[in-house]
Amino acid sequence: MQKETIEVLKNAAAINQGILIVEGNQIRTMSVMKNVFLTANVPDTFDREFAIYDLNEFLSTLSLFDKPEVAYKDDHILVVSGKSKVKYYYSSASVVVAPPKDKTIKITGDFSFKLPEVILSQLIKAASVMKLDTVEIAEHGLRAFNKKNGGNQYDVKIEDTTGDLKETKLLTIELLKLLPRDYTVTVGERAAKFNSIDGDLEYIVTYATKDGE
Question: Which domains does the chain have, with CATH numbers?
Answer without folding.
Answer: 3-95 (3.70.10.10), 111-206 (3.70.10.10)
